[in-house]
Backbone:
């Protein structure tokens, strides 16, 4: 057979195959379209966290070219913020976007997949989750409740919070009414504070009314829009309670099992993209909004002193022992977390930590 004849016949065969595949692919794609119903713990258009969740939902539809259509419901639009977990576990909705430490009443180990006192920063937590077994442990924990969770955002090390009085010693925490969820709230409780866990959309009204005396939220970028400065002028820098960790995109496990490998890969890629974007957005904006809080609203920036930090540390040690005593799974997760905290945190302290400390000293960065 002449070469030109072979190529011609092969080309015809290839073209026929492509045409056949094209004929089949369109109806097959139409039949495979799926709708992902997402409930969130954040109000609609909520600066920072809420906008990030909406951005992720839209991105999935965009990347899949409509093969995966998302329906996004902010807190209260379909279910209450703290009802999101049960809504998804039951199968009434497909997925939630939330901070997983909201579910500590179901299992205390959920705290490790948002943030814990004296725990990992965002970069450290990502390293553990992606490469050192954290995701597998998260799967084991969430799977026991019918959930498949993925990291879908991060806010970095959070501020110590807003207070209507200065905190000069642990005694100043006694009787303080504070909004602070997770294990950080348990640390505060051990130091005599009265703690509550409120959805983001309810914090301002409680602070202004005096129902609470203090609150933590995120950091300057997110906090600026909450207007906490109208009720509390003392804003404390980095706190012990949330050094870093992911926002969760939790799927109903049965629904997740119906997805193709391509669909799972696309969703995972979108969550990884937003996991980075939300963190970077906070880092890009925290500095300018901290200046606005001080210059425009007279906020007084404070730092907890060493005695207060030591009190936090002593209370946190008690909290971790209680978590470990809960169950073999809680102990296994804590063992892995603490091991990686020391290994990853140690290397970062000797590299990034030393560099940043010296850079800031020489350049006068505070």
Residues:
């Amino acid at each position: 057979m002449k070469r030109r004849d072979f190529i011609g016949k092969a080309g015809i065969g290839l073209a026929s195959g492509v045409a056949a595949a094209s004929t089949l692919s369109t109806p097959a794609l139409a039949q495979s379209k799926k709708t992902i119903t997402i409930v969130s713990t954040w109000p609609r258009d909520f600066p920072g966290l809420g906008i990030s969740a909406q951005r992720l939902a839209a991105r999935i539809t965009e990347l899949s070219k409509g093969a995966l259509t998302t329906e996004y419901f902010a807190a209260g639009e379909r279910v209450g913020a703290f009802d999101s977990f049960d809504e998804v576990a039951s199968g009434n909705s497909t997925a939630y976007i939330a901070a997983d430490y909201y579910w500590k009443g179901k299992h205390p180990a959920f705290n490790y997949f948002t943030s814990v006192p004296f725990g990992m920063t965002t970069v450290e937590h990502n390293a553990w989750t992606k490469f050192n077994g954290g995701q597998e442990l998260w799967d084991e924990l969430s799977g026991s409740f019918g959930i498949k969770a993925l990291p879908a955002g991060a806010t970095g090390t959070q501020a110590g919070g807003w207070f209507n009085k200065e905190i000069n010693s642990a005694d100043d925490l006694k009787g303080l009414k504070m909004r602070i969820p997770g294990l950080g709230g348990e640390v505060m409780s051990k130091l005599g504070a009265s703690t509550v866990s409120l959805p983001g959309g309810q914090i301002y009204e409680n602070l202004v009314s005096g129902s609470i005396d203090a609150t933590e939220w995120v950091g300057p970028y997110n906090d600026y829009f909450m207007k906490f400065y109208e009720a509390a002028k003392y804003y404390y820098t980095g706190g012990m309670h949330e050094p870093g960790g992911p926002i969760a995109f939790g799927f109903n496990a049965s629904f997740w099992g119906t997805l193709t490998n391509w669909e799972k890969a696309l969703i995972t890629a979108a969550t990884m993209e937003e996991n980075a974007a939300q963190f970077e957005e906070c880092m890009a904006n925290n500095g300018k909004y901290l200046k606005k809080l001080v210059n425009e609203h007279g906020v007084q920036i404070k730092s907890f002193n060493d005695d207060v930090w030591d009190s936090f540390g002593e209370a946190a040690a008690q909290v971790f022992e209680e978590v470990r005593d809960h169950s073999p799974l809680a102990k296994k997760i804590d063992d892995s977390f603490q091991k990686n905290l020391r290994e990853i945190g140690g290397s970062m302290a000797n590299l990034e930590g030393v560099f940043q400390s010296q850079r800031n000293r020489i350049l006068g960065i505070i």
